[in-house]
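TL;DR need structure tokens for one chain.
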Amino acid sequence: MSVTRFCIVRHGETDWNAERRLQGHIDIGLNANGLHQAQAAAWGLQPHNFDACYCSDLLRTQETAAAIAVVTGLRPRLEPGLRERHFGLFQGRTAAEVERDFPEAYAAYLARDIDHPFDDGESLRIFDQRVAATVNRLAAAHPGQTLLLVAHGGVLDVIYRRAHGRDLAAPRDFPIPNAALNWISVGPEGWRVEVWGDQRHLQSSLDEAAR
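>> reply
TL;DR here they are.
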């Protein structure tokens, strides 16, 4: 079997990211900073060669992928399997609002209970399985190739954990910046992280804007 390489980009910032409001499957577009980040990511990706591009079918990832397409010429294919986790009754609320309105469910969230679906949402276990199945399917469809994925923070969280053999229930102790570049490989020996949270293109963009 051949190794498939993935560069996975989290979408640019939204107003709800800035407010620390859970988005889940709610369709929120990028804010002005997010559009700037998406354009910077496009220029950061420009030196690389990709065989295909897939993105979540939510607006914030589609807008990020569209900015990347302008620079790279890649035409993104919509892949619902790359959607963010469905947070059920938490969606559209901040952590403080969830703690106030649903204290028992919030306690399960803080404890990273991997089987709690938050009413009509996805449990962490089911979400992890959905993301893993999507990545493995894409790897099998593109053996030996290099793919660009535009996805979400939650998607990157479970990918990192799978590649490092980390427990889903463990607290997150690694960064997932908006519009950073994250490289993994998937092959006969499993999943492996090559580069994580590369933000050099974002810093270069800030340096250019300051001139």
